[in-house]
Structures are given as structure tokens and as C-alpha cells.
């Protein structure tokens, strides 16, 4: 008869370290109860070397063992039950988990034990652990939505449950009120082996994996952004744990109630995961009410102080560290000096914030430049009414992310608020840099902005753009820009559409040096009879035209010609980053114009999808409207210029 093999597969941050230390310290007591917790394959009291999941960063560091290397030995154990524990196992890919189960089932009667923690709690605990370990440099509010995908419990359980007989996957909720005897060690032995913990077992009350309290965790996150030496980074952990313990030992405990997520964010996570958790409760625990977790859920009324580190707390922590390890703090000071003007926001922000306490500096004046990863948007502009809305629709369907606050014409109102005003042309390069950084931040990151930038934003808001842009739209754009959700976009193709962008091309080219610009051209004679006269009448007419700039058909054509001559002048400056797209040719030959646009933007899209996009394009009824009017009112030289650009004038 096969021996029974119990695989404790995790999850991480569900008391695994405490359990593994308990199993190791009580190997003799367990052996007397017919349970073997073997030495084979252990690292730090856990059987990580026997795991089917091998993290990439450990592939060449640890000597992982295949099943046929260890199973024959453990199958000869004196005990009839063998227990292996490693939280790495839960992260095995589906195919590897199934193969692992098949291989060990050849030697053992296999059971799986797993503890599940409510997703908002495990995301917060995992985040804290990653900050301690050193790789986590981003704020949790930028990444928590992505983390929800990792804790899809039905998906994690499926390969194990499908590979074993019904009832052989033991699922336990990680909540103290649901633990047998109020203790996870009692709970595990009771539900896995029907063993009660008595005085013969050694029970340690030491916290096996203490956490960093909120303010210390945020300090360590900033250290992670600056200190790249792994050994020195680890040294900070021990010192910061000592600091935290001196302040409040309860704040470092694993089940501490400190929250790095707001009540709103936690509720969002809980609601997203509720159906999956109900499935686990009914399928694995036979709970017909679908209740997997019983701890009280957060409420919108709960108080929450946020996770920002105050200058006062940073000073207290720095003073403690300087007193304990001055050499380590001198290294941190050197890193701060190196990264105070870094292009990467997290490094720059961390260096400047910590410089106040570590270097004794007052708050450094930020240098706002659009980061390299944000410097290559795809921008669509043109004279108003030239067809930019059709172009942005097509690009969006090709996969270009056009975010921000949009109006009915799909103009980016954040851009309009900040830049579509005559006063922008009088602002310094520094002020334009700040506004460009503010815009790129809202589009790509959503990091909280300084009062300096808010003041510039409000100066822009004070500029009257009516009747073109109603005041209520500008107010809404201001609110949505400042409340842009934190994110960490890595969209390969992103951009915006605002017809007036072509007027600001020199500024945009300086602030977004890898920008690609699509200038949409429509027959100038059609444009002369357009109802869209906003650029000429309300913004740039008297800047582009000498003399009369009233919105007549003659002046609309003169404005069109001036704008196109000006854009022709940017060909040498921008080279391959400037694309002239003919709206008329797009309507008459959509396949050819779309292919040229696709190639310019560097977008990968199937021929089938391109054909579908081409089929969706049709000429508007207003195309060729100039034929209904008397063209003798125009200067013949102006008509010749329209013809020279390839447009029909007859």
C-alpha cells in the first residue's frame, strides 16, 4: 500500500513560515504520530528544492531536485504519512502542476493542503514582503489591480484538484477566527492529520516573518529605488525592523491591521473576487452560503490615513539609522546625490524626499521633464474640420491608447485645458516643461502633483475659451486630471488628438522629443466653406494672418494655406516623425492611406483587421462642397496652392 504524501503548497503570506518552523522543530513529535517531515530538499525548514515551480532568479542558485530523485527515498520512510511544505508549489504553471501530481502519484497517495487569504489582505501582505525583499519600487496604488489577477483561487486550485481524487485538496481559510483552536498550527494538524496539539509539541510565539509598519515600509520602498546593492539593501531591513519594534512591536505582526490600500480599493478587490471565492467555498468546503471568508469587510466609512511618509517620520527613521549604521547611511547619501535629477520619476522623487532628512537639505526644487518612456506619443492635429476625428477613431481601433478626458469630437480636454490658449506662447520653456510633465503624468502615471503644478493648472483654467470650450468642460477636465487614477502605463502606442496641436508643434517637439505627429489635410476649398472656424476666429487667426482675419471663406482658405505652409517648414526638423495624411485620399483609397498610416505609427495589425478598417471608411456628404460655391472670390494663387498639394480644384 502506498504511503500518503501531504503537499502543503502555500499560499505565501498565509503563515507558511510559521508552519514550516513548527513542523521542523517538532519533527520527532510528528514522527511519533506517524508523520515524517523529511530533511531532504529543505531550505530554511521548507522543501523548496522539491517544488515543481522554479523561480527564474533561483534557477542557478539552488539545486532543485526532480521527483524521481527524491520520491523513492521518501517512499521508504518509517512513517506512513509524509509532509512536504513549500509555498513555491502554488505558483507552478498548470502543465507543471499536473505533471508533478502524476509523477508523485506513482509513488504516493497524494493530498494537497492550501491556505487561502482574502485577496485584499494577501495583496497588502505580499506587497509588504516584496518591499522587505527589495524588488518592489512602485507604490501599491499603481499595481494593486494587476495583483488581483495573481490571486485567482479557482485557477490556482484547478490543476491540483483535477489531477487528484475528489476530496484530496484540503482548502483552509487563513483567518484566525476560522482556525481550529485559534491557531494555524492547531488548524493544520487537525484538518490534515486529525492530530490535536498537546504539551508534547513545542510552540513558539515568535513572529516568524514580521512585517514593516506603514511609515517604515514607505521609507524602505524609497530605499529600494536608490540602493541597488542587494547586501546593503538587506542591511536596511534589519535596522528598520529594529526601529519599528522600538516604536510599536504590534505594528510588525503578520496579522497587523494596518492597511496600505484605501477602503475603496479594498472593497473594489473584494467585489471583483467575490464570485470566485463563492465557488471555492461551495466546491471545496461544501459551504452552500458561498462564504469563504468571515472577517468583517472594510466600509467606505472606515478612516484611513494613507501611506504617504511624513517629513517628521522620515527624520525620526533617518536619525535612528544614522545612530546605528552611519556607514550605511553615507552610502544612501551618495545614492541620493546620484539620483536627485534622474529622469525616472520614482528614483528622482525618492532621492529628493529623503534628501531632506539624510542630507539635511530643504525641499529641492523639482526639475520637470517628460521621462524618456513618455516622450514618444502619437499626436493628431490639423485645421479644425479636417477629419481628425475619423483618424483618431481608426488609430484607436489599431490599438493606439487615446486616454484622458475626451469631448464628443474625441479632442483631449486635458490638452485643451493646458495648452489651447494664446498665453501658452508667452510662457517660458520651464513653464511649458512643467505643463507637459503634468499632462504626461495624468495620461500615463497618475502620480499626485505638487502645489506648484496645481497653481500653473489653475492659471490655465482662468483663461477663457468660450464659446469653443465651455467653462464647465474646463472645470471637469481640471478635476479629472488631478484625480487621474494611479497607474503605470507601458502602452507601446499612446497619444492624443487635438486639432490645435499643430500650432504648438515646436513646443511639443521639444517636450516630447520622440513624438510622431500626424497632420490631417483636407481640401482647402472644402475647408473654406466649413462651419468649423474656431482656430481662425477664436485662437490663432490674427497670429497666422496679416490684416483682416474675420471668418470669411477667403480668410478660412488663407488660414488653411498659412497652416500648411508652416507645417511644410517642419519637414526637415522632424523628418520621419511627421506624417501628412490626406483626408480626401483616405476616403477614396482607404487601403493605401491606412497602410501608410500604419507603417508610420509602427503598428502591427493583421491584414484582415486592416481590411475591416478600410471598409468602415466612407466619404462624408460634405466632401466636394466647394463645387456648390463661386470660386472667383478666391485669389487664383491660393487656388493654385491647393492644387499643388494634390487636391481637386475643379
Brief overview:
This protein is 48% helix and 7% strand. The protein is α/β, with parallel strands linked by helices and 650 residues long.
Which features characterize this protein?
650 residues; alpha/beta; Rossmann fold; 2 domains; 5-stranded parallel sheet; 4-stranded parallel sheet; 28 helices; 9 strands
Textual characterization of the structure:
The chain is built from 28 helices and nine strands. The strands form two sheets. The chain has a five-stranded parallel beta sheet with strand order 2-3-1-4-5, sandwiched between helices. It folds into two domains: 3-211, Rossmann fold (3-Layer(aba) Sandwich); 373-644, Rossmann fold. With 650 residues, the protein is of the alpha/beta class. The protein has helices spanning 16-25, 27-32, 67-74, 94-105, 119-133, 144-150, 153-163, 184-193, 214-226, 230-247, 263-284, 311-324, 326-339, 345-358, 388-398, 413-419, 429-444, 451-461, 471-482, 505-511, 524-528, 534-544, 553-568, 571-574, 583-588, 590-601, 607-615, 636-644; strands at 3-10, 35-36, 81-85, 108-116, 169-173, 378-381, 495-497, 516-521, 578-582. Mean pLDDT is 92; it is low at 249-256. Helix content is 48%, strand content 7%. Helix 3 (67-74) links the parallel strand 2 and strand 3 (81-85).
Amino acid at each position: 500500500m502506498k504511503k500518503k504524501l501531504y503537499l502543503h503548497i502555500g499560499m505565501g503570506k498565509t503563515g507558511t513560515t510559521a508552519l514550516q518552523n513548527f513542523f521542523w522543530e517538532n519533527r520527532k513529535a510528528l514522527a511519533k504520530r506517524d508523520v515524517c517531515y523529511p530533511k531532504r530538499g529543505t531550505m530554511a525548514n521548507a522543501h523548496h528544492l522539491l517544488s515543481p515551480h522554479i523561480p527564474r532568479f533561483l534557477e542557478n542558485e539552488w539545486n532543485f531536485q526532480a521527483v524521481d530523485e527524491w520520491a523513492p527515498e521518501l517512499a521508504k520512510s518509517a512513517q506512513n504519512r509524509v509532509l512536504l511544505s513549500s509555498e513555491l508549489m502554488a505558483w507552478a504553471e498548470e502543465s507543471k502542476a499536473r505533471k508533478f501530481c502524476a509523477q508523485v502519484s506513482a509513488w504516493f497517495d497524494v493530498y494537497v493542503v492550501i491556505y487561502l487569504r482574502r485577496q485584499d489582505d494577501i495583496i497588502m501582505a505580499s506587497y509588504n514582503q516584496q518591499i522587505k525583499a527589495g524588488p518592489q519600487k512602485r507604490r501599491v496604488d499603481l499595481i494593486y489591480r494587476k495583483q488581483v489577477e495573481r490571486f485567482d483561487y479557482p485557477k490556482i486550485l484547478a490543476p491540483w484538484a483535477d489531477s487528484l481524487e475528489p476530496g484530496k485538496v484540503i482548502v483552509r481559510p487563513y483567518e484566525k477566527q476560522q482556525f481550529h483552536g485559534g491557531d494555524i498550527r492547531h488548524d493544520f494538524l487537525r484538518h490534515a492529520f486529525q492530530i490535536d496539539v498537546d504539551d508534547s509539541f513545542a510552540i513558539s510565539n515568535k513572529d516568524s516573518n514580521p512585517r514593516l509598519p506603514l511609515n517604515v515600509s514607505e521609507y524602505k520602498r524609497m530605499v529600494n529605488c536608490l540602493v541597488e546593492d542587494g547586501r546593503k539593501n538587506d542591511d536596511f531591513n534589519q535596522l528598520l525592523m529594529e526601529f519599528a519594534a522600538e516604536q510599536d512591536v504590534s505594528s510588525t505582526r503578520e496579522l497587523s491591521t494596518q492597511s496600505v490600500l484605501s477602503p475603496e480599493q479594498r472593497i473594489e478587490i473584494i467585489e471583483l473576487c467575490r464570485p470566485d471565492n463563492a465557488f471555492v467555498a461551495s466546491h471545496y468546503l461544501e459551504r452552500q452560503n458561498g462564504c469563504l471568508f468571515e472577517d468583517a469587510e472594510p466600509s467606505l466609512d472606515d478612516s484611513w490615513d494613507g501611506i504617504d511618509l511624513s517629513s517628521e517620520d522620515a527624520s525620526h527613521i533617518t536619525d535612528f539609522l544614522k545612530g546605528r549604521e552611519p556607514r550605511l547611511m553615507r552610502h544612501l547619501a551618495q545614492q541620493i546625490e546620484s539620483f536627485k535629477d534622474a529622469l525616472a520619476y520614482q528614483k528622482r522623487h525618492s532621492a529628493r524626499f529623503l534628501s531632506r532628512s539624510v542630507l539635511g537639505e530643504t525641499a529641492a526644487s523639482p526639475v520637470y521633464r517628460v521621462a524618456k518612456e513618455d516622450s514618444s506619443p502619437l499626436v493628431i492635429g490639423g485645421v479644425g474640420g479636417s477629419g481628425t476625428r475619423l483618424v483618431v477613431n481608426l488609430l484607436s481601433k489599431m490599438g493606439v491608447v487615446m486616454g484622458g478626458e475626451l469631448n464628443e469630437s474625441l479632442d483631449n480636454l486635458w490638452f485643451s485645458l493646458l495648452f489651447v490658449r494664446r498665453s501658452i506662447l508667452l510662457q517660458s520653456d520651464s513653464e511649458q516643461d512643467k505643463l507637459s510633465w503634468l499632462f504626461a503624468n495624468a495620461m500615463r502615471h497618475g502620480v499626485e502633483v505638487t502645489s506648484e503644478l496645481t497653481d500653473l493648472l489653475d492659471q490655465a483654467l482662468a483663461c477663457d475659451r468660450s464659446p469653443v470650450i465651455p467653462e464647465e468642460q474646463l472645470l471637469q477636465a481640471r478635476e479629472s486630471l488631478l484625480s487621474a487614477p494611479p497607474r503605470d502605463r507601458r502602452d507601446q502606442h499612446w497619444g492624443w488628438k487635438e486639432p490645435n496641436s499643430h500650432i504648438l508643434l515646436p513646443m511639443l517637439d521639444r517636450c516630447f522629443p520622440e513624438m510622431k505627429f500626424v497632420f490631417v489635410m483636407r481640401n482647402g476649398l472644402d475647408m473654406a466653406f466649413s462651419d468649423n472656424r474656431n482656430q481662425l476666429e477664436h485662437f490663432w487667426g490674427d497670429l497666422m494672418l496679416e490684416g483682416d482675419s474675420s471668418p470669411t471663406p477667403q480668410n478660412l482658405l488663407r488660414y488653411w494655406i498659412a497652416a500648411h505652409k508652416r507645417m511644410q517648414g517642419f519637414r526637415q526638423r522632424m523628418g520621419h516623425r511627421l506624417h501628412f495624411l490626406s483626408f480626401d485620399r483616405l476616403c477614396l483609397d482607404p487601403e493605401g492611406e491606412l497602410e501608410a498610416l500604419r507603417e508610420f505609427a509602427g503598428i502591427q495589425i493583421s491584414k484582415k483587421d486592416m481590411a475591416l478598417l478600410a471598409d468602415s471608411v466612407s466619404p462624408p456628404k460634405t466632401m466636394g462642397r466647394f463645387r456648390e460655391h463661386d470660386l472667383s472670390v478666391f485669389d487664383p494663387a491660393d487656388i493654385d496652392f491647393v492644387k499643388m498639394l494634390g487636391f481637386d480644384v475643379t
